[in-house]
Known about the structure:
By secondary structure, the protein is α+β, with helices and mostly antiparallel strands. The chain is built from 4 helices and 3 strands; from the N terminus they run E-H-H-E-E-H-H. It has helices at about 20-25, 30-35, 55-65, 75-80; strands at about 15, 45, 50-55. The chain has a 3-stranded antiparallel sheet. The chain is globular.
Amino acid sequence: MTKQIALPPTLAPRLIGRESAAAYVCCSPMLFDRLVSEGIMPPAKQLTTSRKAWDVRELDLAIDNLPRKGGERLPLTVVQATVRDDFGWE
């Protein structure tokens, strides 16, 4: 993976590659591929014909939707409240 030198060190990238996306969700790249193919994790964004990357915000939403131990999921209203898009702007 190439180092991002154009971003300030305090600004995380919005799009990340496969290996970084797998590390972000705490799994191996092979397991991440399986989670994507099963629809548990989101598909990549297509940057060019040969380059794809995952949106960190979409990964966050997929992580929020994962079941808890025992198979239960948070009520959708709780998940929605944690990822609101309303920044208080009119």
